[in-house]
Amino acid sequence: MMKLVLLSGGSGKRLWPLSNDARSKQFLKVLENENREMVSMVQRVWGQINENGLGDSSYIATSQAQIEMMQTQISPEVPLIIEPDRRDTFAAISLAATYLYSHAGVGLDEAVAILPVDPYVESHFFEAVKQLEEVLNRSDAEIALIGVKPTYPSSKYGYIIPEKAASAGAVTAMSSMTVSEYVAVSHFREKPTEEIAERLIADNAYWNCGVFAFKLGYVIELLASRGLPIQYEELSKQYQLLPKISFDYEVVEKASSIVVLPYEGCWKDLGTWNTLTEEMQNKQIGRGIISEDCINTHLINEIDIPVSILGLSNVVVAVSPDGILVTDKSASPRIKDFISSDQGPMYIERQWGWIRVLDDRTYEDGRCVSTKRVGIQLGKNLSYRLHSAREEVWTIVKGSGEFIQNGNFMRVGAGNVLHIPMKMLHSIRALTELEIIVVQSGMAEERNQVVEIYHTWDEVSEHCIKV
User: Fold this and answer.
1) How does pLDDT run across 314-347, given as a tens digit for each residue?
2) Are the beta carbons of 42 and 31 closer than 8 angstroms?
3) Which domains occur in the chain, in start order?
4) Whole-model pTM?
5) Are 366 and 405 in contact (CB under 8 A)?
């Protein structure tokens, strides 16, 4: 059966300030499912994959920073292929191919389909994905793509231009379930002007939606021909030597035989605020007011301070602990050019809860102080850990829990203040929803390391609580 690999290694700039390096755009819960529950892009796509019977043959290629978020939003058992570094899609797909070959035991003649993790599509889009294996077998092409029939001359997307002879009449690949029509590819055009896009559409060009398939042996042989490892562990060790370039530029556009499977239906890249808000059911998420004379205006507010928008149309206002964005929708794709890389994430979701940075500063004497509000979900716990160069003061502001420090156990609740010296092992488990104000301090020049001993509360109870 064909294997699917979803690529989820991107950074969080295009949907700033809600997205950041710790919480990329695909994890934002701004879409609504059929049960009127708020879900993220990755939850929506993974649900569609399971609905179409593809879950057992699917993997997600992602970065170390996204492991916890992926397991929290989908499942702790979600099959992940971990990229040691961000090096664009050529490196990510190469690593995934070696994982399938040397770890998952996938045969060289088996088909592999690559998908972005965040497209907004109807469920039947995955019927087209399923057909890629048949297209590869029938066409004997090196790579098979899915091309979306354009609905307007967009300058934001890449285009797949079919060969002239093939564009008049598609080649049919018969299977027992479907009839697939594919055409040979002539060349590609990346983000043309709208005028050029109109001409491309007249020549039967398709939007390139970033979905393609190949036989596993095609990529494995390519890596071997370049003297690169074909074993997952070895390629991981040499990952930093791979070029930072897209798979499209490095492989697809150099292939000698490419075909495209046309798809006609809903497809959107929700990578910018203007496209994302088109699919949001609610014009307002979070505290605030949008006046009635505002047209096509959206507010997404993640903090407790209310935001009022009066008399502004075609505008997005996004507010989070990372910052505030006020933008005309048409200008929103430019946000990535204005984001500073100096500030770390101010809001982080974890498997056990969340962290919100309230203040983080360094003083003239070299002392650094970070203040955070930490939420721990019912029944969840922090790992049994120590800080090598930071002391902490915890103030419990909500709920109750079980606290352990250096083997000493105690019940804690709202109003308790706990002092945790440097290099002191500690952990806490939430008996109810728990919130803590954490003030962490030390000398900035001393690099702090977090040493984790045990992760589950059963391990902590067995090994660390003094009887």
Assistant:
1) 999 999 988 999 999 989 988 888 876 666 788 8
2) no
3) 3-269 (3.90.550.10), 283-337 (no CATH), 352-464 (2.60.120.10)
4) 0.80
5) no
